[in-house]
Design a protein that fits this description.
- By secondary structure, the chain is α/β, with parallel strands linked by helices.
- It folds into 2 domains: about 160 residues, D-Maltodextrin-Binding Protein, domain 2; about 110 residues, D-Maltodextrin-Binding Protein, domain 2 (3-Layer(aba) Sandwich), CATH 3.40.190.10.
- Strands 1, 2, 3, 4, 5, 6, 7, 8, 9 and 10 form a 10-stranded mixed sheet that branches.
- Helix 6 packs across helix 7.
- The longest helix has 24 residues.
- The N and C termini lie far apart (about 70 Å).
Length: about 290
């Protein structure tokens, strides 16, 4: 008979190995890109500003002033908040006001700075079977979609977009479910492509639509204009001493909030798309509650 202590020791060794691997994975989130050549370095988690190239322009401009490389971790707002909470990044840019309020209250995020905004559009097939063009609000548009049970794409990833979507369903008094409600667990552009393929309704941010609408030729903007769909972005940094490069990240936030940084934000996209992808903090401030 084999020694039961042998099996116990073996199991413990395996569990320790698994735990160590998980710990390494947790402290080394995947790097999407690095911008700048400087000796200093800091880690920033965000979604759309990175996907659409704004982060690169801000990072390279900051590098010229401070000699600091920006390391971008691609993550939606919910995941970005968690990365800051677990001290895996030095700072984040997110559009999740409730999550930001909680982070500040609990003390694991500081330096909240309004940096800009965009808005949400509800796009869908040109036939508009749910007739949301006549909707009186975002919640009314969602109610019409649910009533018609026409395909609707949800990111389902706890991102700021997903959180806003769920808030709108709540406003409409609806729990979305059924074969018409399709969850991608993916980022904005990928979900937009899925909506195009399925001829489905989808809530996309205006920045992604301006930059990526060519990937969704079957869709068009069907509803916009509800102030509740305006999307404000905050930058947050780890508390002093919490992460190795926190102070460099804090300087980057100051740069983004400066006249130079704000000019980059409000002009970004104009040369390529004939319209800006984001509004600056002055514009965004009117929608902060």
């Amino acid at each position: 008979m084999r020694n039961p202590h042998f099996f116990s020791a073996l199991l413990s060794t395996l569990l320790i190995g698994i735990f160590m691997q998980a710990s390494v994975a947790q402290t080394n989130p995947k790097v999407e890109a690095t911008y700048g050549q400087g000796a200093k370095i800091f880690k920033l988690a965000t979604g759309s500003p990175g996907e659409l190239g704004l982060l690169q322009q801000l990072g390279e401009a900051f590098d010229k002033k401070e000699g600091a490389r920006l390391v971008w971790i691609k993550a939606g707002s919910g995941a970005s908040l968690n990365l800051l909470k677990t001290q895996q990044v030095d700072m984040i840019m997110v559009h999740a006001p409730e999550g930001v309020n909680k982070a500040i209250a609990e003390g694991w995020a500081t330096g909240r700075t309004l940096i800009g905004s965009n808005e949400f559009y509800i796009v869908g097939p040109k036939a508009d079977l749910a007739k949301i063009k006549s909707a009186s609000s975002g919640a009314d548009a969602y109610a019409k979609i649910a009533k018609a049970q026409t395909n609707f794409i949800s990111r389902g990833d706890k991102s700021g977009t997903h959180q806003k979507e769920m808030d709108i369903w709540k406003k409409a008094g609806i729990t979305p479910e059924g074969s018409w409600y399709i969850v991608t667990n993916d980022f904005m552009t990928a979900s937009l492509k899925r909506a195009n393929a399925d001829k489905a309704y989808f809530m996309t941010d205006s920045s992604t639509w301006v930059a990526e609408k060519n990937v969704a030729p079957e869709l068009q903007i069907l509803y916009r204009g509800d102030p509740y769909l305006v999307n404000t972005y905050d930058a947050l940094v780890a508390p002093v001493g919490a992460t190795e490069n926190r102070d460099t990240a804090a300087k980057f936030i100051q740069f983004v909030a400066s006249d130079e940084g704000q000019a980059i934000i409000r002009n970004y996209g104009k040369a390529q798309y004939k319209e800006a992808l984001y509004n600056d903090a002055v514009y965004a401030k009117q929608y902060v509650h």
